[in-house]
Amino acid sequence: MTEDVVLLTTFTNAAKKLRVIFHKGVLIWDYEKPPFEQKSVKLENIISVKPDYLKCSHPSQEPELDPYSFTIHYGFREPCGKWKHKSLNLKHTDPLQVTSWIKTLEKQLGDMAQRPKKLLIFINPFGGRKNSMQIYTRYGKPLFEIAGVDVTVNVSQRKDQIRDFLINGSLEMFDSVACVGGDGTVSELFNGLVLRECRNKGIDADNINTPLPSPRLPIGIIPGGSTDTIAYCLHGTTDPTTAVFHIIFGDSVGLDLVSVYNEDQLLKLYASVLSYGYLGDVAYNSDRHRWMGPQRYNYSGFKKLLANNGYQGEVAILTEKNEIPSEKCFENCSTCSNESGEGKVKAQWKTIKGKFFMISGANISCACSHSPNGIAPYSHLGDGNMHLVLVRHGSFFNNLRLLLNLSNKKKHIEELPFVETYSAKEFCFRSLGSTSRWNCDGEIQHQSNIRAKVSRQLLTIFSRGRPEVAETMTKCCGM
C-alpha cells in the first residue's frame, strides 16, 4: 500500500543539498539552507522515474547508466488549469539509495492500473489548421516516451477512415485509444467504437428502444481542430500538453452520448451539439468554402445572420425538470457522480410549436475560446440530460444580441427573453414548413425530422474534468 511506504533521504540537486521525503503517496522536498522553499507532488501526478545516463565522450559510444543520479518527471497544474511538464534531478553518493528510490517509486506507479500501457492514437492531418501531426510530434510523443506508454500511430487519409477502422480493425492488443484532431475526428472515434460494440454484441443500433453498449476502451482527446469544443469542455483548455497529461494519468470521467434517428435508422452519435436553423445553415454553406480554412465559418455565419431565416417546426421534449439548476460542471462534479436521483421523477413529454431562428440540443456546455460560457452553460458531462435551446425567430437585432451574449464571458444566452432552455432526455423535431439542415458535431444531416436520445455516460474519457479557474488566473496563463 502507498500509505505504508516511507522514504527519507538527503540528495544533491544543482550542487545544493535537498531533503526528500516520500510518504502517504506524496513526494516532498526542500533545501537544507536558505532560502527555504518546500515543494510537493502527489504520486498521481508523477509520470515516471528515470535513471540518468553518463555523457559519452564519442557519439558512437553506447550511453552508460549513471548509478548516482536519477530524475523524477511529473506534471504541475498552473493556476489557470494548464498542466506543464516538470522534472526533479536527484544525486547521491550511495548507488543503493538511488536504486531503492527508483524501484520503490516505479513499483508505486506500476500499481496504478488505470494508466494506459498500449495506446492506439489516430491523427487527422487534414482537420482544423492541418497541424495535428506537428501537435503530436511536439507535445504528445515526447511525454508518452517519458511515461513509457507504448503508442501505435494511425494517420487517417480520408473522411470516416477512423470510424471504419474501429468498426472492422483489430483492437485486442490495445488498452486505450486516442485521437489528435478536431471535433469531427473525435466524432469518428466514438461513433466507430460504439458501432463496433453493437456489431460484436449483436445489437440492432437502428432500434431507438435498444440501449447502446459502452465501448470497452477509454478514449483520449488531444485537440487539433478549429474550435475543439469537446476538448475544451473536458479539460478546461485546448492546450495539447494538458490533454496528453490526462491520458498519461489515466483518470477518467463518464461522458453522455446522444443518438440521432430518423424514422428508420440511426443517423449519428454526437457528443457536443445538434443544431437546426442558423448553425445548420452555417455548416452547410461553409462546406462550399473549405478553401478559406477556419475563416469560412465567420463568412458563412455573417451571411446567415443578415439573411435572418426562420423555420416553422414542432418540438416534443421528454423532460424531468421544470427548471435548470444554475450549477456549472467542474471536476469532481456531484451532479455527474450522483445517481440517487435517477428515476425518482417521472419524465413527461412537452410539445412546443413556433418559428425558430435556431434549435440546439447541447450535450455539453459547448464552451470554447470564442464562447467562454457556451450555448448551454449549465449542461453537465454525465448527468444523462441534454439541454435543448430554442431561439425564437425575431429581428436581426435579436440575432445580434444572441451572438454578443455567446461571446461575452459575463453573459448567458438564457438571459435573453426570446431564448428558452429545457433539460431533456429525448426530443423529437418535425418541420412544419421550409426546412433547414442539422449540424451534428460539425457534420451535416439533411433529414429535418429527427429524434434524439441521451445515453448516460456511454463513453469513458481520459480527463479529470474542467477545473474551476478564476478569470484573473485564466488571463495570466494566456488562455
Strand content: 25-35%
Q: What is the molecular shape?
A: elongated
Q: Give the oligomeric state.
A: single chain
Helicity, in percent? 10-25%
Q: Enumerate the spans where pLDDT stays under 50 for 5 or more consecutive residues.
A: 470-476
Helix vs. strand class: alpha+beta
Q: Total number of helical segments?
A: 11
Report on this model:
The strands form 4 sheets. Strands 12, 13, 14, 15, 16, 17, 18, 19, 20, 21 and 22 form an 11-stranded antiparallel sheet that branches. Strands 1-2-3-4 form a 4-stranded antiparallel sheet, with no helix packed on it. About 1% of the residues have low confidence. With 479 residues, the protein is of the alpha+beta class. The protein has 11 helices and 22 strands.
Task: Provide key terms for this protein.
single chain, 479 residues, alpha+beta, eleven-stranded antiparallel sheet, four-stranded antiparallel sheet, 11 helices, 22 strands, elongated
Please give the structural blueprint.
Blueprint: E1 6-13, E2 16-23, E3 26-31, E4 39-42, E5 46-53, E6 65-77, E7 83-91, H1 95-110, E8 118-123, H2 132-147, E9 150-155, H3 161-168, E10 176-181, H4 183-200, E11 219-223, H5 229-235, H6 240-249, E12 252-261, E13 266-270, E14 273-277, H7 278-286, H8 295-307, E15 311-319, H9 334-337, E16 348-362, E17 386-392, H10 396-407, E18 419-424, E19 426-431, E20 438-440, E21 443-445, E22 450-462, H11 471-476
Parallel strand pairs: 8-9, 8-10, 10-11
Antiparallel strand pairs: 1-2, 2-3, 3-4, 5-6, 6-7, 12-13, 12-22, 14-16, 14-20, 15-16, 15-19, 16-17, 17-18, 19-22, 20-21
